[in-house]
Amino acid sequence: MKKRYAKKLMSATLASVMVMSMLSGCGSADSKSTEATEQTAEASTDEDIEIWSTNNGYLPVEAGSELYNFYKDIIGVGIVQPYVEWNGGETYLEQLNLRIAAGDMPDMFTPWNGVETELIANGALLDLTDLLPEKAPHLWESIPEDVWDAVKANDPTGQNRIYVIPQVMSYGRNGAMIRKDWLDNLGLDMPTTQEEFVEVLRAFKNDDPNGNGVADEIPTGGRAEARWMGQLFGQYGIAMWEGYPQWDIYDGELTYSAVTRNMRDCLEWMSGLYAEGLLDPETFLNDKAAWDGKINSGVVGIWEHLPQECYNYAENIYNGTGVKPEIAVLPAISAPGYEGYYTMHQMNGGGFVVANTDDEAKIDRIMKVLDAYGNQDLWMKFYNGVEGMHSEVVNGESVRLPDDPSTQQNLVLVPFNQIATIDFQVNVLSSQLTDDRAWAVSQAIENVQENQKYVKSFAGDGMPESITSDYPDIANRTLYIEYATKIITGEYSIDKFDEFVEKWYATGGTEVTEKARKWYAKKAQ
């Protein structure tokens, strides 16, 4: 089946694969990915399952390795995973497309950027509809029925079948954080209005809140492509997920948030912050490593990320500066005339898909993996990973060690991040309250719960990426990124926003909006 699919796909993807092959030959990271893939394939056996997922620099999982044996002991199935650099999904997708074109897909993998749509249409992915309730009941029951219904509604074949295991967050994961100790150092209260927020930014910039005598503080900022700036976009009621504008109800109709009056007013306001030096001047140059590096070096006052993981920032700041920071959730602030919030994304894309196969024994092994993935009795084991690598025993209890990509193999099964509840997250964090880490982890426990006061879902949650598959520039936010970046930095005046909206609708936005509203009408039935 996979080889037949590859022949169908080859003519359509040959040119892009040739380009990606040249790109992968030019960078050390891509070369590392290709080399690791080949090595892992050689080391694994027909009894193993090869799974690809997010990897932000961690070691691969090879047959016979510690993490491989860990999974095999728990599940009864060996799992291998080569090192494939994630790089925001870009490098991952390049390498995945090479494997697809070669007719040799991983057995199970995280889909990205809508790649699953064509795979499903061509019969390259396994239909899981009947298999899940029978052979993976723990996973089947861990995901709400209405979510499974939404997955079926997104089936590109129109047959209402399940091909994708969704990532489901039943709570608000993302939010904004603020250096509460900086506020205290300057005698400032937590800001609750936009006016107070801007005054805090000015104080962070000018009044040396970290007390080192150097004007090195960055009040706030984000990453390239205007990503991870929900602390700003959220103030204008903009549905925004990690820098990707979402679809919500504006003026009574489902509308792409990037083309709304909300966005226009927000960009105009942000351009003023940038001109005053209240945004990191390198915001649109920062990749993840650069932005995280600034936060971890103790010079950033406000940023968006995951409150449940703020202990990582706290510990990194302490290790780098000797200061134990107090990190708090920034309350959602409303700009005048708007209702501010942090976007809650319940259906956060696809977690896994499975390559189609007629091998019943392999299907059974994959189902065992998926059933274990959904078994909440195993989640703490998966979280703690290999003793001595990912965790250690303290007072008879397993305690997770700080993340260290240079020494730790990549945890392949992370249901606690993909289909978990807030109660489980709190339990996970509570298990890390050792004497030396309690000061940092307790902040994460408080913050993840506090953040729920300020999150809001949006109408377009669960919309399939196929809505924009015929319009890659819209899917990639090409026009939006250009205009948003240039307006914020002052290269364009705010009057250019109207030009952006006209171009967006003229270059596919009208058609995409029609598709999106039809999808929403079907979802609402």
In short:
With 525 residues, the protein is of the alpha/beta class. The chain has 22 helices and 17 strands. Strand 9 and strand 10 form a beta hairpin.
Keywords:
525 residues, alpha/beta, five-stranded mixed β-sheet, four-stranded mixed β-sheet, disordered N terminus
Architecture overview:
It contains 22 helices and 17 strands. Helix 1 (2-26) packs across helix 2, helix 14 packs antiparallel against helix 19 (438-450) and helix 21 crosses helix 22 (496-524). Strands 2-1-3-14-4 form a five-stranded mixed beta sheet. It has a four-stranded mixed beta sheet with strand order 6-11-5-12. A two-stranded antiparallel ribbon has the order 7-8. It has helices at 2-26, 28-43, 66-75, 90-101, 115-121, 131-135, 137-142, 145-153, 180-186, 194-206, 230-233, 261-275, 288-296, 310-321, 360-373, 379-384, 415-418, 422-430, 438-450, 472-475, 478-488, 496-524, and strands at 48-52, 78-80, 108-109, 164-168, 175-179, 218-220, 240-241, 244-245, 247-250, 253-256, 300-305, 327-329, 342-343, 347-354, 391-394, 397-400, 455-456. Mean pLDDT is 90; it is low at 1-37 and 39-43. The longest helix is centred in the last third of the chain and has 29 residues, at 496-524. The radius of gyration is 23 Å and the shape is globular. It is an alpha/beta fold. 46% of the residues lie in helices and 12% in strands. A hairpin with a 2-residue loop joins strand 9 (247-250) and strand 10 (253-256).
